[in-house]
Task: inverse folding
């Protein structure tokens, strides 16, 4: 009986000796993702914005430090390199922070640029971006009240975005929201190289999005957006949403994830369709 | 298919041929425990000219039924024996005027030594492959903080049985998920009998007579599940004497009563259990355990002088709690089941034994978030089955009919994300037949077929086969094998991307042409060595098809999108039991390998593989368990160590905010983007291994016509930080119970 008791005691002690803390590494760093980079280089814009964030260890990072990340943009044909400026953005009512990098350097059409991100430890990611040709400004013909008007012009490449963006004011809550509607599928392309697209007045769409009647909001601003992409603009037509979300599916960032693409994007403010008393009226024809 | 039809015809032909051999004399009957009327399995029944001579012998089956046929007219002494019970003998006379004699018997408990009984049972049992029979006395051997040993604690010591952690009540048996396991209580299906605290279930040692765990290869009588069967038989209340007990521990308290309603003819048994851990953890643990459960069970049993035994049972369970104490999600589930069973031996009939089961089972589970019912899934099932036994010459036939009707209702819509709610019904009916043949004394073969008609789905033909071979040269040891086809028409979907979940959506199979399906093959060997040592080893292979799983996505939100996976499961379990006088011990090891293959819609191409292969959450490769115990006078010492190798989890490569270049050019100054988990494959990582040492000491004495028992013990003696799960979305590590001392007490009638 004593032997049994001693054996049990010895067993207990040996078990205790393996009571070490478990080492647990929840993140797999073997893929070598250093930075996440998203954004565009827009040949039509004065300022370029690119999101550059270290690939995080948390789903929504709350660290307000940029960790010393330096982002540069280089025009490959000349070798001219510019350090982009950092800017901390706050989203989701302060719960999410993001670092966007900007520059006012001129971005030329049909050029190749390289964007590099580097942290003090030497970890780097980069993206090669090719810009498209510039866009021709469309002609907007106003009408109303059912349709806002028609945008027309000539094209050399199918657009990647045609949309109308509204700034909506809610008098009851004294708040404003921005809402965008894509018109991409409504664009009619002619064989002669012309296109036209009808611009909705936005009332029905906004009512549907916010689930409120027309009387409870007013459109205080609107703009038409037309954009064409560069050669590296992704073709998502054969990918499911789940596939698009995969880190390796849609990317041009080396040693990282994300996509920075060249774009020619025009924004054209649309005229107001409200009178001085705030009543919706037929939009004044331009011509 | 032609083979399947021929196999099914075999038992029917044998039934038709039964009239030819029905002229021989036979004796049959039911053996029960005298005190409770509970059917008594494995009783040795011998027939001779004197009590010591032997002309013929058999043992009772799981229903306590026996039959001996091909007998000649004359006077015989029939004797019923079981170690630990008083032997019973009687003289009977067989004559041609009464070709069938019914002789029922009840055995009275004698003073016995526990260890001897267990070893003897193992020597008598047929060692059916895949089957582990668990007796109530074994339950106390697992050190748990309660003086009413629990079935689920014991199950987790079995090789091939894996649990995600000590919360949630989810068990994986030989690669099958919780929803692929059939749990029966006196023939009534219970969808979730395991409590939210993983050491407890509704089945405690006070109320069960035995539990058969079929980890695979089960016979034609069981249907509707593709992985395993846990067939729990409740004991009956005492027909002659009132017994009661009350137990309390920091985790759980319980009360038990049994007693006669009509002396010797009918009885009632009541069991109540309720958790205390929510309140007690706040008093002496560093972290409150917000977990609550309770259960109530009442069983009524009656027997008449014609040998008809009937019982009815009503049970309710309730569970509520947080699996991750810092999250908003509260899991709740409840069972309400009721039903009855009647069994009798039939005289003057080709059918020897009849058993009828009927009842209803209702199950509801839900997730509550911020006080709002976020998701729920309810079901209601009514069922009926008829089971018959017929002996035709040397062939025993088991056959019967079953029918059930199920209503499902769920709403798992995510607010503003997607809608998914449904109500549906399913009607199933079926037949089964199984023939047992013993061509040699050492060989027993079972061949059967279940034919189930899933009214809204399709007909399923499921052949089953098993054999046991015990050649004399192995001195009590033997080989066993089984194989079968299994199909399942209802599915329980659990989004195992988040291991910290206990929510299951029950529904019909989404595609009527795709019943869940499994092919089992098992081969085992067991060997008793003397009266002290038992060794067994068993290998298994399961090919599973059409398992609905949630579509994999790197978007951190729940999904109701389903796809199908096929799986390959194989492994082996080994057991060594050593019992000597008052010392008992066992060492068990289980190896398991589970791999699913899934097209995952179009996702497979995104992973650059046409078919996505992964190891699901239940793929625990190694499971080692060591238990030992010693009973010395009024003391009992139990110690148990469990090891489980690393469970799969989805290991991310990191996180970012994602922009979709579709229809709109990203505006990084206006939008944050969509939070994204960077993953390569589901379940690509492994959590650290689990191991834990538990021990308890019990002390008992008698006082004022009562028995007092005290227990002191410690869970997780060396305070191992075992990870329950890792929340990929929040990067939070949720751990299991840390070092936890406890004291329990029980008072019971003598």
Result:
């Amino acid at each position: 009986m004593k032997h049994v008791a001693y054996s049990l005691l010895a067993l207990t002690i040996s078990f205790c000796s393996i009571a070490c803390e478990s080492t647990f590494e929840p993140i797999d760093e073997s893929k070598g993702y250093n930075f996440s980079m998203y954004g565009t280089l827009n040949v039509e814009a004065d300022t370029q914005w690119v999101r550059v964030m270290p690939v995080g260890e948390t789903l929504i990072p709350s660290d307000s430090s940029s960790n010393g990340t330096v982002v540069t943009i280089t025009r490959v044909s000349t070798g001219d390199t510019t350090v982009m400026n950092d800017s901390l953005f706050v989203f989701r009512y302060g719960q999410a922070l993001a670092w966007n990098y900007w520059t006012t350097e001129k971005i030329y059409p049909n050029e190749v640029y390289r964007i590099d991100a580097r942290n003090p430890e030497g970890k780097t990611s980069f993206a090669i971006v090719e810009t498209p040709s510039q866009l021709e400004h469309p002609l907007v013909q106003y009408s109303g009240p059912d349709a806002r008007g028609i945008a027309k012009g000539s094209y050399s490449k199918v657009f990647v975005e045609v949309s109308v963006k509204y700034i909506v004011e809610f008098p009851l809550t004294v708040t404003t929201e921005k809402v965008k509607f894509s018109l991409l599928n409504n664009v009619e392309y002619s064989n002669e190289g012309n296109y036209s697209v009808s611009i909705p007045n936005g009332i029905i769409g906004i009512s549907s999005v916010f689930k409120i009647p027309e009387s409870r909001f007013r459109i205080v601003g609107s703009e038409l957006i037309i954009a064409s992409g560069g050669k590296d603009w992704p073709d998502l037509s054969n990918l499911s949403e789940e596939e698009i979300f995969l880190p390796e599916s849609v990317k041009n960032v080396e040693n990282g994830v994300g996509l920075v693409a060249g774009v020619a994007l025009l924004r054209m403010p649309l005229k107001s369709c409200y009178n001085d008393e705030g009543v919706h009226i037929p939009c004044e024809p331009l011509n | 298919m032609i083979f399947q039809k021929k196999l099914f015809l075999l038992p029917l032909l044998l039934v038709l041929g039964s009239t030819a051999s029905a002229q021989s004399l036979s004796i049959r009957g039911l053996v029960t425990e005298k005190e409770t009327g509970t059917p008594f399995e494995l009783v040795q029944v011998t027939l001779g000219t004197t009590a010591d001579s032997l002309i013929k012998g058999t043992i009772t089956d799981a229903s306590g039924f026996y039959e001996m046929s091909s007998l000649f007219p004359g006077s015989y002494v029939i004797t019923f024996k079981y170690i630990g019970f008083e032997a019973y003998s009687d003289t009977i006379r067989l004559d041609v005027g009464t070709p069938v004699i019914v002789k029922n018997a009840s055995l009275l408990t004698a003073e016995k030594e526990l260890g001897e009984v267990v070893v003897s049972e193992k020597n008598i049992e047929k060692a059916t492959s895949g089957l582990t029979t668990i007796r109530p006395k074994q339950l106390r051997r697992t050190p748990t903080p309660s003086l009413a040993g629990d079935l689920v604690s014991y199950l987790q010591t079995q090789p091939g049985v894996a649990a995600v952690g000590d919360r949630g009540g989810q068990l994986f048996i030989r690669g099958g998920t919780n929803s692929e396991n059939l749990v029966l209580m006196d023939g009534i299906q219970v969808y979730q009998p395991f409590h939210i605290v993983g050491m407890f279930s509704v089945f405690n040692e006070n109320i069960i007579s035995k539990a058969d765990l079929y980890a695979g290869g089960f016979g034609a009588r069981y249907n509707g599940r593709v992985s395993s069967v846990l067939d729990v038989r409740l004991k009956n209340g005492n027909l002659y004497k009132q017994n009661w007990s009350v137990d309390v521990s920091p985790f759980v308290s319980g009360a038990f009563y049994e007693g006669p309603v009509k002396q010797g003819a009918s009885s009632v048994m009541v069991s109540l259990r309720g958790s205390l851990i929510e309140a007690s953890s706040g008093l002496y643990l560093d972290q409150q355990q917000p977990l609550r459960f309770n259960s109530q069970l009442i069983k009524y049993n009656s027997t008449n002088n014609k040998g008809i035994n009937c019982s009815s049972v009503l049970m309710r369970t309730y569970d509520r709690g947080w699996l991750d104490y810092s999250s908003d999600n509260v899991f709740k589930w409840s069972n309400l089941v009721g039903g009855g069973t009647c069994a009798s031996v039939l005289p003057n009939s080709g059918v020897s034994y009849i058993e009828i089961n009927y009842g209803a089972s209702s199950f509801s589970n839900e997730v509550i978030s911020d006080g709002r019912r976020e998701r729920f899934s309810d079901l209601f099932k009514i069922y009926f089955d008829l089971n018959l036994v017929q002996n035709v010459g040397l062939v025993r036939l088991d056959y019967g009919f079953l029918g059930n009707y199920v209503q499902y209702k769920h709403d798992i819509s995510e607010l503003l994300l997607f809608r998914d709610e449904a109500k549906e019904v399913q009607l199933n009916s079926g037949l089964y037949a199984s023939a047992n043949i013993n061509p040699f004394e050492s060989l027993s073969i079972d061949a059967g077929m279940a034919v189930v008609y899933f009214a809204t789905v399709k007909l399923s033909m499921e052949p089953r086969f098993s054999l046991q071979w015990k050649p004399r040269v192995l001195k009590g040891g033997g080989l066993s094998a089984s194989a079968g086809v299994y199909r399942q028409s209802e599915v329980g979907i659990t989004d195992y991307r988040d291991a910290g979940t206990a929510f299951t959506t029950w529904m019909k199979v989404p595609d009527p042409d795709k019943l869940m399906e499994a092919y089992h093959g098992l081969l085992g060997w067991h060997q008793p060595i003397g009266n002290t040592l038992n060794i067994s080893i068993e290998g298994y292979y399961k090919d599973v098809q059409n398992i609905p799983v949630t579509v994999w996505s790197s978007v951190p939100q729940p999904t109701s999108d389903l796809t199908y996976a096929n799986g390959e499961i194989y492994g082996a379990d080994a057991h060594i039991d050593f019992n000597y006088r008052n010392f008992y011990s066992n060492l068990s090891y289980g190896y398991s390998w589970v791999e699913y293959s899934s097209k995952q819609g179009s996702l497979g191409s995104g992973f650059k593989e046409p078919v996505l292969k992964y190891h699901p959450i239940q793929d625990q490769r190694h499971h080692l368990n060591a238990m030992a115990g010693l009973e010395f006078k009024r003391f009992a010492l139990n110690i148990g160590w469990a090891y489980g190798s690393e469970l799969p989890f989805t290991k991310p490569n990191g996180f970012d905010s994602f922009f979709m270049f579709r229809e709109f050019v990203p505006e990084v100054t206006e939008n944050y983007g969509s939070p994204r988990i960077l993953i390569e494959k589901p379940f690509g990582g492994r959590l650290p291994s689990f191991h834990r040492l538990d021990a308890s000491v019990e002390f008992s004495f008698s006082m004022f016509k009562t028995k007092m028992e005290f227990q002191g013990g410690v869970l997780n003696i060396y305070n191992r930080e075992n990870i329950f799960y890792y929340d990929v979305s929040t990067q939070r590590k949720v751990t299991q119970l840390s070092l936890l001392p406890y004291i329990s007490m029980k008072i019971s009638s003598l």
